[in-house]
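Good morning C.,

I know you're traveling, so I'll keep this short. The sequence:
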Amino acid sequence: MSERAEQGTLSKKVVILTGGWSDEREIAKDSARAVAEALAEAGFEHVDMIDVAEPDIATRIANGGYDVAFIVMHGVYGEDGCIQGMLEILHIPYTFSGVAASATATDKHLAKLVYDAAEIPTPHGIKVHKPEGLDEALEQRIYDELGDSLFVKPCSNGSSFGVTRVTERRQLRDAVALACSEGQDALVEELVEGTEITVSVIGNGPDAQALPIVEIVTGAEFYDLKVKYEPSELHHVIPARLPEDVYARAQALAVRAHQALGCRGVSRSDFIVRPDGTPVILETNTIPGMTKTSLLPDAARHAGIEFPELCRRFVEFALEEDR
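The tokens, ready to paste straight into the viewer:
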């Protein structure tokens, strides 16, 4: 990138959109503060931050004279295509994936259909329509098809909210009720055991590239909320301790997921690597966390990309082409 082009990017007026109404609101605001600091350090001259839950949000954004919106929201209304749709109407370029990719990746059941079509291994799963949909026949089908050890999660949520590992049959109904507690459907999946990894991908379209793989070591049943926000050095091993061919395969599958879903700018796909070396994708995040303990900045740092540079690139990706 030329010095002149870089200066043109740094002169853009940026609004960071964060907060919102989901149960990940405070986590998003922590990330947004880190992004604001990073953009300032990168040299951006005009950066504002707005909590989208505040009154008259559309009017404030429309009248703000912003060149680009940097979205730092998680969960419903932020990562599911809703805020992206509003920005489309306002004709304001924005970071990360568009409406369709955001909505599809957020719905874990729909994402699994995309993974299957793209030949990306994913756990076998069954969707349950609200707790009342779990009758005896469906419960028996779940155990017949998925086995006795299961994961139950909301179809459209993140950061491990509402996720339960089920090891006894008596736990299943409560787990489904918890997953559906925000009015969503539940996804019941077979338990896949192995090495837990996550692969971040940055870029648009055919230029998307995988970052170093992070191996997640928890000592817990799964990568839950407590573990996610502890110091990264306690749980992140970079690069992941995988055979060279398995490592390359996981990176290639993450890029394939990014492109199959239609992601832009960034995505972060979570996998379990089975003992036989098969990476099995669990989900793809279109707006990964960006706090100091988050996986994406950690992976980028090991690729030689410091956080201010990473955030500058995200703005550039947003401005590359009209959506």
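Safe travels,
E.
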